[in-house]
Design brief:
3 domains, Ubiquitin-like (UB roll), Rossmann fold, about 35% helix, seven-stranded mixed beta sheet, alpha/beta
Length: about 375
């Protein structure tokens, strides 16, 4: 089956999906349409990847610092101005579209953390399918720890839905937890389904139909989250990227108070629909002016919070810990990660570690490599 035929089939199914009203009678049919569309898109993407992998240019950038943030938005939305204000980058700035033609890296230092920020070329609708070097841009997003979606204050309603759609089409799931679903294929016996939670968004016959559409006739399925059909499709394919996202609304200096109120109302509606998950600080968007430097410190703090950094202090044997120079790690980091960050050989050389802080039951408790640390912990490594 050629690419064009696949595209036509996808378009026909998407048209049918858009015109089908959702109710109890049609929910199974709608779920099946979503599955068929997903399978055809996977097939199309697989063909394109195999064919173009060798010749496609890339924006590969070596990771630097404690985390990587990708900055994405429409052309001339202010990405270059923003990265130049936040970092040591020297991204070209001009008043016309498509000024940035490559990926420009910069390094932002904040609260002892070194955060790499990437200024990517502006994207257009259809980027996930290759429009305007969209494939190359999207590929960088998949390797980022945080994605900043930058939009003009006067065009938020037009720009953000397109950015979110393109990111979703590129198999990136913003501010979502990976569904806890286990699918074990087997040689025979059909499909067996067990769940540890009550499933209210998907029926077991929908699970079976989805598996069959992807040519999985025999499998044991364990579901530990109350998922919907789209999340189950993501679990079948297994190639989704789950990343944090933060909306940044730029150019608030050139709009009036009425427009700012409109933007706040729009973002509040997104939050109500659970499109955006709030971090511990409650921040899900920041309104700034990159040109005038308005709210840039607030943005830095929001980036820091979204990246979920923790501070670990190292203590040499016989000495006190240096509390002025923390090692910056990500939430969920274990002693193994601390060893690797110092030097890869430390993983093999470690005998044990002593820990003082929230993750220890008592001061100086001994742990091995897999112990998960918490913010403010003091770690003393004992090597062989």
């Amino acid at each position: 089956m050629g690419d064009q035929l696949l595209i036509e089939q996808i378009q026909a199914l998407e048209q049918e999906l858009s015109t089908t009203k959702y109710n109890k009678r049609t929910e199974h049919a709608i779920g099946l349409l979503k599955v068929k569309i997903a399978r055809l898109k996977e097939q199309l993407e697989s063909r394109r990847t195999i064919r173009k992998q060798a010749q496609r240019p890339s924006y590969a950038v070596k990771r630097n610092g404690d985390a990587t943030v990708a900055l994405i938005g429409f052309p001339s939305v202010g990405k270059s101005t923003l990265i130049n204000k936040l970092t040591n980058a020297n991204s070209k700035i001009a008043s016309y579209n498509f000024t940035t033609l490559n990926c420009i890296p910069g390094l932002m230092e904040y609260k002892n953390a070194k955060i790499q920020i990437l200024d990517l070329p502006g994207i257009l609708e259809g980027a996930a399918d290759g429009t305007g070097k969209g494939k190359e841009t999207i590929s960088v997003l998949r390797n980022a720890d945080l994605i900043l979606l930058l939009a003009d204050a006067y065009a938020v309603e037009a720009q953000l839905p397109v950015l979110r759609k393109e990111i979703y089409s590129a198999r990136i799931r913003l501010n979502q937890k990976k569904p806890d679903v286990k699918i074990d294929k087997k040689a025979r016996g059909g499909v067996t389904i067990s769940s540890t939670v009550k499933l209210t968004k998907i029926k077991k016959d929908e699970i079976v139909s989805a598996l069959k559409e992807f040519r999985i006739m025999n499998a044991d399925v364990i579901v530990r989250d109350n998922i919907n059909i789209s999340q189950f499709i993501d679990s079948i394919t297994g190639n989704r990227k789950y990343a944090s996202g933060l909306f940044v609304i730029n150019k608030i200096d050139i709009v009036g108070q009425q427009e700012i109120s409109r933007v706040k109302k729009y973002m509040a509606e997104l939050s109500k629909k659970s499109v955006v998950l709030k971090d511990k600080s409650g921040v899900n968007y920041v309104m700034i002016s990159a040109e005038k430097g308005i709210n840039l410190e607030l943005l830095k703090e929001a980036i820091y919070q979204k990246l979920k950094f923790i501070r670990i202090y190292l203590r040499e044997v016989g000495k006190e810990a240096d509390l002025d120079k923390p090692m910056i790690m990500r939430e969920g980091a274990a002693i193994r990660d601390v060893c690797s960050k110092i030097h890869t050989s430390f993983v093999e050389k470690l005998r044990f570690a002593r820990v003082w802080g929230k993750s220890a039951k008592f001061p100086g408790q001994k742990f091995k490599l897999e112990h998960v640390l918490k913010d403010g912990d003091i770690v003393q490594l004992h090597l062989k």
